[in-house]
Design brief:
Length: 258
């Protein structure tokens, strides 16, 4: 197993034609790698600009750069369900916290949506927010040593989010309604326990929750949909935004060590 993971912005290792080649690292990343003790003979994990994962042996490590050769190209697990958090827009601080935490957890995507209790935002900020959240997601995934960071979408109105939900293999919604399923029960009911590769959307409302009308619209978005309860406590949106995907990823077997 590689002792360190380095991330490349644009370099695609599959395009390298020499047995020994230089990693294209910025000065800060190179300095940090050397400070952490990376030296010739070490094996490191490298995630390149195409999000491909390689195990590389260091041939030379110096302030001039890292020269490496490919030791292996491990396959990343693709036979597990991928969880996409569909998160009701809350204030900037709450959203930053949620995106940072679920990116460390390993969600495949994050789709913020605007609903009744979401704060109003200037549409001109949409690009700014999406860029900031994508940067935060990538940084957090790197800190966690994950090979891939989640894609973060633009803030969508609820109606557009519901249209997106229609394309998922299954949808799980946090909703304290009449049927109080646990996450394990929802996974079993939707037949996701042994389904292999698929994409599952997990809907968590904003601070203040979802209205009955919004829940009705979400409920009609996908025929394979189940609601779940997160328990008797009233959770802050930042807490629900972490607890819900943790429970779902765990129920799907995603927290087991490979």
């Amino acid at each position: 197993m590689a002792s360190q993971t380095l991330y490349l912005e644009t370099q695609v290792i599959a395009h390298e034609r020499q047995e020994v080649f230089a990693l294209q690292l910025d000065a800060g990343t190179l300095q940090a790698a050397l400070a952490q003790g990376i030296a010739a003979g070490d094996t490191i994990a490298v995630v390149d600009g195409a999000q491909d994962y390689f195990s590389c042996q260091v041939v030379q490590a110096s302030p001039a750069g890292l020269l490496v050769r490919i030791a292996a190209r491990p396959s990343t697990p693709t036979n597990r369900p991928r969880v996409h958090l569909v998160q009701g827009l809350s204030n900037d601080e709450a959203m930053d916290t949620i995106i940072r935490q679920v990116s460390e957890l390993g969600v495949a995507g994050i789709l913020p949506f605007r609903s009744t209790f979401s704060p109003s935002i200037d549409p001109a900020r949409n690009d700014e927010l999406q860029a900031r959240w994508q940067h935060l997601a990538r940084y957090s995934a790197r800190q966690a040593g994950l090979a891939q960071a989640p894609d973060v979408g633009f803030v969508e109105p609820l109606e557009d989010a519901c249209n997106t939900l229609a394309g998922f293999d299954a949808v799980v919604v946090c909703w304290e309604g009449e049927v109080a399923r646990s996450m394990d029960e929802a996974v079993a009911e939707l037949g996701l326990a042994d389904v292999g590769s698929c994409d599952v959307a997990l809907v968590v409302g904003p601070r203040g929750g979802l209205t009955d009308a919004e829940m009705a619209r979400i409920g009609s978005s996908n025929p394979r949909l189940a609601t779940v309860s997160l328990g008797p406590a009233i959770l802050r949106v930042e807490t629900a935004g972490l607890v819900a995907p943790t429970l779902l990823i765990s129920a799907l077997g995603g927290l087991r060590r490979s």
